[in-house]
Amino acid sequence: MNPSPSTTANVSEAEPFPAGPAVRRPTRQVRIEWGGKSVAVGGDAPVMVQSMTNTDTADAIATAIQVKELALAGSEVVRITVNTAEAAREVPAIREQLDRMGVEAPLVGDFHYNGHKLLTQYPECAQALSKYRINPGNMGAGKKRDDNFAQMIEVACRHGKPVRIGVNWGSLDQDLLARMMDENGRRARPWDAQSVMRDALVVSAIDNARRAEELGLPGDRIILSCKVSNAQDLIAVYRDISRRCDYPLHLGLTEAGMGSKGIVASTAAMGILLQEGIGDTIRVSLTPEPNGDRAREVVVAQEILQSLGLRAFAPVVVACPGCGRTSSTVFQELAADIQSYLRAQMPVWRLKYPGAENLHVAVMGCVVNGPGESKFADIGISLPGTGEQPVAPVFIDGQRSVTLKGEHIAREFQALVEAYVENRYSKR
């Protein structure tokens, strides 16, 4: 049934539905620094991407190499495990190796159980790190926990280092949780256990942040996180903590998983929060495949932010999924090659061609959407589908520029992309 004229008029006169993320929640700004490098988190800074090594930190060479790989992939700070005396002793050597290689990415030390001892016993480690990650749930119980926490905060104050106070679902302060469960039992309408646990995560993070400030750590050196492994719990926890404090927040599912499961879960949870303006730095905690590329988690984090329009890291390649019209694999191979090529060029292009990360490329497989998508892209190609003429029109800035044909379409199109980037983004 057709809509009535009045309904149609009301729709046409309505304000357009807004697109884009919500305004970022206001926070303090924390700076993570090393040498001349300063990475801002929170405030008016863009959402920062970070990652973590999985090497044995006591192996300084292997760890420095992986930090470099993560930094080249786009990780703006890199976290390393500091769990033993051997690891703590090697942190200055790792930093020295990175400095020699020209890698300025600040290092974050990840501490559990014995961080108070390692930071005190190895002051060179404490100085070489740019930030400490502290888990209050893994610092003992009662007065011992309080003393250990205070010792780590004192070291952070002495060296002028920021701290991430990161509480975790799997290592939550059990004394706090038991007390909150008892309080919940006295409610007229008690919450379910899961809700109490989420509340305990938020309370633990904020209470420990306030205690750190009482111990002398400035409020603009504190970042908070509440890590869980379930997407819905992560969304609920961060919506809650974002209303209760103005510390910058680190987002990430812990134990997200492998492959597509980890990517989808992390994207679903963090995408919703980022769209709501919640989150100041993110990590995608992927379990790598055996001998897999650790830097994949950096690429996924960047793609989450770029898909939401929050940041641009590398040119976007639009490609159709393929169907019965596109039995040829030429467009699939070309799209993959172009995407890999563009990302590989970005470490150089970022310096040589500022703005190239905003490039929009289309590689389409047939005439249905090919010309249209190619016209909307900065540069696009519409390859011939099944039964179409063996020619590939190329569109530049919306105008048909040239038609490619023959066996070297892929190579010729890549050359056109290179020329476009140089002409458009070269420093004048």
Indicate the mean pLDDT: 94
Largest β-sheet summary: 8 strands, parallel
User: Please, how many helices?
Assistant: 14
Query: Any guess at the CATH architecture of the largest domain?
Result: Alpha-Beta Barrel
The portion of residues assigned to helices is: 40-55%
Provide the spatial order of strands within the biggest beta sheet. 8-7-6-5-4-3-11-9
What is the CATH fold-level name of the largest domain? Answer: TIM Barrel
Number of strands: 17
Task: Provide the structure class.
Answer: alpha/beta
Domains counted in the coordinates: how many? 2
Percentage of β-strand residues:
15-25%
Terminal Cα span: 59 Å
Q: What is the name of the CATH superfamily of the largest domain? A: Dihydropteroate synthase-like
| Low-confidence parts | none
CATH class of the largest domain: Alpha Beta
From the alpha carbons, calculate the radius of gyration and give it in angstroms. 25 Å
Describe this protein's structure.
The chain has an 8-stranded parallel sheet with strand order 8-7-6-5-4-3-11-9. A 5-stranded mixed sheet has the order 13-14-15-16-17, with helices on both faces. Helix 2 links the parallel strand 3 and strand 4. By secondary structure, the chain is α/β, with parallel strands linked by helices. The longest helix has 23 residues. It folds into 2 domains: 280 residues, TIM Barrel, CATH 3.20.20.20; 105 residues, Sulfite Reductase Hemoprotein, domain 1 (2-Layer Sandwich). The chain is globular, with a radius of gyration of 25 Å.
